[in-house]
Amino acid sequence: MPQLFHPAMNTLAKATFFGSIALAAGAGLIGWNVERSSYMTRQGDPRPQPVPFSHQHHVRGLGIDCRYCHNSVEDSSFAGMPATKVCMTCHSQIWVNAPLLQPVRDSWSQNKPIVWTRVHNLPGFVFFDHSIHVNKGVGCVTCHGEVDGMPLMWKESSLQMEWCLECHREPERALRPRSEIFNLHYDPQKDANRGNPTQLELGLKLKEQYHILPRQQLQNCSTCHR
Amino acid sequence: MDSDSANLVAMTGDLASIRARLAARGGPALWRGLDELAGDDEFFRKLGDEFAPGAAEWDDAASRRNFLKLMGASLALAGMVGCNDQPQETIVPYVNPPEQVVPGRPTFYATAMPFSGYALGALAESHEGRPTKIEGNPAHSASLGASNVFMQASVLDLYDPDRSKLVTHGDMSTSWGAFYSAMSAHLASRRKDGAGVRLLTRSITSPSLAIQIDEFLKRYPGAQWHVHDPTRRAGCCGRNGGGPGQAVYDFSKADVILSLDADFMFYDVGSLAYARQFMDGRRRKPGTDADRQNMNRLYVIESSFSLTGTMADHRKAVKPSQIEPIAQALASRLGVADAGKPSFSSEMEQWLDAVAADLKAPLDDLRSVGLKAANGGVAVVVAADHHSPALQALAFAMNQALGSIGKAVRYIEPVEKQGAGTIESLASDMAAGKVDTLLIVGGNPAYDAPADVQFQNVLRKLSNARDAAGNSANFTAHLASHKDETSFECQWHIPESHYLEAWGDLRAYDGTPSIIQPLILPLSSASRSAWEFMAAALGQPDQGGYEIVRAHWQPFWKKQQDAHKEQKKPEREFQVWWESVLREGIIVGFAPSPGVPGEGNALQDLKEPACESTGNSTAFSAGPSQPASAPNPDAWEIVFRLDMCVWDGQYANNPWLMELPRPFTKLVWENAALMSYRSAEKLGVTEQSLIKVAYAGRALELPVLIVPGQADEVLTLHLGFGRTQAGHVADDPDGKIRGYNAYFLQTAASPGMGIGVQISKAAGNGNLVMTRSHHAMAALPGMKVPSESGRLKPRAIEHPGMDDQEIGVLNRKLVRTATLEQFQDDANWVTRLGGDTEMKARGLSDEKLFKGRKIQLSLYPDKDHGGWDYSKGYQWAMSIDQTACIGCNACVVACQAENNIPVVGKDECGRQREMQWIRIDDWYGTQPNEPRIDGVDAVDEPQITHQPVPCMHCENAPCELVCPVGATTHSAEGLNEMTYNRCIGTRYCSNNCPYKVRRFNFFLFADFETPSRALQYNPDVTVRSRGVMEKCTYCVQRLNETRMDIEKMTVGLEDRARAAEGDGTPAGAAEAKRIRALIPSSQTDLLGQLQTACQQSCPTQAIVFGDKNQPNSPIAKVREDQLSYGLLEDLTTKPRTTYLGRLSNPNRKLSKAGVSA
Q1: Could you say which of B972, B1021, B1044 has the minimum Cβ distance to residue A226?
Q2: d(CA B260, CA B262)
Q3: Which of A111, A112, A221 lies nearest to residue B977, judging by beta carbons?
Q4: Set of chain A residues whose Cβ sits within 8 Å of the Cβ of B103
Q5: How is residue A56 annotated by DSSP?
Q6: Is B9 a residue whose pLDDT tops 60?
């Protein structure tokens, strides 16, 4: 009886076997990385807005405090988006004829809200509360980055669960004094030279001072999911 | 699949075999339905399954083609779910932000909900302008912070997509303006005096609406006003006359209460307050002298089980026609002259003697007389309004004889506006051609008028009549939330605003007025409130409800100022007063005057045949109004009651209420003919058999439902079903009408009950769905353990010396009841009832000695081995008092509203797929020490104990171990958490849960589609999708919010303290100390305000919740109570939800006098 398979088939079989494993693993790896990439998370991707509001101009240029517009950030889960009235406190006086601000004036005169594009968007089963973070020593910049350098808003962090957990596992890496929450350029290392504690030392001290829940509890599912 | 098999209905046993089973068991057996008593092995095999047959399979009629389509779609989508980008969302801020609204935090407004025309004070929760949940207003006398099922579900009515949105004229959509011009033209074309003009309303308690009606009648002196309100017959406060005014009870002052067919804890307009008062007199008062000594006692004489009946210490089920003779017999024993002396069997006479003696000398049989000396003992009699007013008058006479007036009951001037005509007189006038204009303000008389009034027919004739020129001769208009049965018979239909949309005012059962404060603009701009409608009838179509109501109360405020001889305040002070009224939700100082004949001379008045106070009153003579001797004992009688979920039919389009298992029967989505087992046997019918009920010349076919505790030859029909024009919820998917319209048998002369009913077997079966046997907790008491299967054996712990039968069957002790006397004799009876195994499980929960070696009893790691340390932080726990639970379902709907729980529909309920997180198990059992009369036993006169079962949050949770993906985990605060986004739907957890509290989304039950429905969802809770397990979370969203509030407050105060210290002065240090001292008390305050949704709604405060680590918190105390126990504790699950055993207070003399049980 003649051989059914050519000896080269041995190699082919091996190649198929290991190749398919490699292919499947590769596909998985690619999928995993695509899912975590900024292509999916839209990290660092400036979003178009109905009014090209520049945080760079308003925060760095004019020195307006975060809470002037996001005024419920200390009291509520939602940081608050400025009502048209807030824009109009200044823009009824300055840049009153700027074409860029036409949607704001229309909103005010027609009593129709401005529809902003959401940049930081969590899934419906995740419940994030701004107020507790801000009250317990997590600064704006920790999650949102240096907003005062963003002409159009983008997402600085991935907002994926592993990113949340990084901090919920070791909150001491991110804690800062409550007085520095809204300071976008606070750096404990700068002060460390003058004999002040490093971030880690400071964080551990603040963790105690601000009654940060034990790591075990910060990682409970119901902390964010309910 | 045959849905019967999934429905677990297996009424196979006959009465004799059921009784034999009961007798053989010896001891107080408990069962949730007769099928659990009567069922065969097959039934119990089904019951033992985690999911009902068919529940886990997709056996719905999907075609092969559909199946392939779905398979293809799901394959294609399965690959996609991992890498879909989130949909782009937008943020829409305010243009001009309203004051006080912090986005993301709810705001609460005081308002009032109309319930049977009366006010229930409410606090409505608003998220950025959307009302999402209704709670009771603690400051309001009628709600006392609690709520009932209707209040909880009313928020869903607001968003009902079937509500009408347009004014219609015939089939044409038109406008409010067109309606107004048509109405005013028609009114102007009539005679000046307005003869022929009729106004038909529901009961009116609103002071401003009453004035508007008066003005209307003044403007059109020939006009007449009629009232039709089926809810007037529901309560026990004498709304139909009979007493010297309206009765207002204070059950907390009463030591002995006799209820004559009156369900004062559910049906009455003051039921929430009454239930609270009753429990105040009943629950133990730990730490006081009264504890273990004094407890009120309730006698109930009724024909069909009511919630009040389930609370009774002694209950008698009698025919409705017997209630009045019994009342007469009792009255004459209490010394009421001319009450009549009907005679009964000697056992019954003995029973009545004992009851009368107890009423005269309350609680005289108690061994220790603790509180009794202090108040002398008060007894009170309460009578139902669905009987003739004579019963109410008898109750009044008895109260007078007992001297309870002014103590436990007072009579006030009727709260409702009086002087209206009836619907019968309206209908006969319409038939006689005396009516040409009919304005119907609210209500649905074409559906809910008694059938012999023929209102629908005369209304149709009136609307369709043409004059010689062929034009419409008459004018008929109906204001209603839906285009309902009545709207279809009227020329005009005007959408009615919901109470959360429009201003108004109402009075409560005790006369307290409240303002209805709207939270949202009407969803349809065409809708109008009754107040605005009446203003239009008075010629002011554009007057808003706010102006009407505010203008009404200004003179009242002025008068109040004058009465207090205060300096005349400027008008702007009125605004201050008005705002405080809106904030508090009540108007103080509007005291109702006492009932007309006064308290002192009422007996005199009673002897005169007077006491007419409302429209449909019947003159009462003190003599017997019905023959004292019993009518033919074999003749059937019929009782009409409002349905306990859809009420008179107004909630028939509310899915939460439709799907709510009715108390006792656990019937969902429809009604049935309720009868006793003995009567069913006599008729030769069984559950689900169709019967034909012929009464007063009409006949109705409907299925039978057998209920224990029902008097024999008595048929109970619930009103409110069989709506033809209610909306999509009330219609079956196949277009059939849901339920059976019992109004079709009602007569105007006797709307509450009827004698002379002919009942015959009809061909066929109904398809009733009851949830009573669903979610059986492991092995049921009385349940046979199939020998070939070890499934039902508890496996967590070995019980040497006990066979399976004993463990599985007898020693579960899910419900523990005892009498006060037994409790006095043995304070630890609850623990003792738990038996040896449970004692071991409790005492040796962590370790025990095994052959001289220490072994850990539980497989779970303790705190020293990586387990949780429960001695620190908040440790949440719940306790449910079974003495106090009246089974009203308020918690079930409150939970549904708070936690975005979907409804599934009747068919899915039949497959055991209902989703409510709390189920209330109604356990039937023997009344302790109840003497048996005429050979009746526990099947005929059982005691019902209500057991609400939410998640137990076991410290050793069996569900957590079996989840392959870690979707259900434990938290440091003792919560058993469910993480929806991790769940892949294996349902292992539900299989392993001994309490059967987990619910699975077999389909996409949540409504993501209806735009208006989405507005109601609680934004703090995930709306679950298909394929996800869910269960009670202890309202973790509320816990998290409270915890965060406490943390924020603490950190803020500490910051202030540190800043004060900063300057280093002694003053600074003192200030810092003062600030730091504030922290603990503020924490306790915030923690004290924390309530779960079920706890907040409970009328009797049966649910206690909190942090068990707080040494003085109510929950810590109640867990130490002698009555406290956990369900299935022998499994060492260490449940965080515990129960208090049920105490009852039967009359010792009565127990000894009677035949032994």
Answers
A1: B1021
A2: 5
A3: A221
A4: 72, 76, 78, 80-81
A5: I
A6: no
Domain boundaries, chain A: 8-35, 46-57+72-80+118-224
- DSSP secondary structure string for all residues of B733-775: TTSPBPS--GGGG--SS-SSEEEEEEEEEEEEE---EE-TTSS
Judged by CB atoms closer than 8 Å, whether chains meet at B102 and A75 is answered as yes
Query: Would you list the DSSP string of B428-484?
Result: HHHHTT--SEEEEESS-HHHHS-GGG-HHHHHHHHHH-B-TTSSB--EEEEEESS--
d(C-alpha B878, C-alpha B1090), whole Å: 12
Most A CBs within 10 Å, among B91, B868, B1039, B1079, to test the A interface? B91
Q: pLDDT (tens digit, 9 = 90+) per residue, A125-151?
A: 999 999 999 999 999 999 999 999 999
**Residue A205 identity (one-letter amino acid):** K
Question: Which amino acid is present at B824?
Answer: Q
DSSP code of residue B808: I
Question: Token pair for residue B712?
Answer: 């024999």
Per-residue confidence (pLDDT) for residue B783, from 0 to 100: 43
The vertex-A181 CA angle with A177 and A185, nearest 5°, equals: 100
Q: Radius of gyration over alpha carbons of chain B, in Å?
A: 30
The angle that helices B572-584 and B545-563 make with each other, rounded to 10 degrees, is 110
Query: Each residue of B173-231: pLDDT tens digit?
Result: 999 999 999 998 888 887 677 788 999 999 999 999 999 999 999 988 889 999 999 99
Q: Rounded CA gap, B477 and B176, in Å?
A: 12
Interface of A with B in 181-210 (CB under 8 A): 209-210
- Give the ipTM of the model, two decimals please: 0.90
User: How confident is the model over B1138-1147, as pLDDT tens digits?
Assistant: 999 888 888 8
The radius of gyration computed from the CA coordinates of chain A, to the nearest angstrom, equals: 25
Sort B682 into a burial class: Cβ within 10 Å, 0-12 / 13-18 / 19+: middle
* DSSP conformational letter for A171: G
Q: Do A226 and B1054 touch (CB under 8 A)?
A: no
Distance CA B979, CA B18 (A): 45
Of B89, B102, B1054, the CB nearest to A118: B89
Phi-psi region at B1137: left, alpha or beta (left = phi > 0; alpha = psi -120 to 50): beta
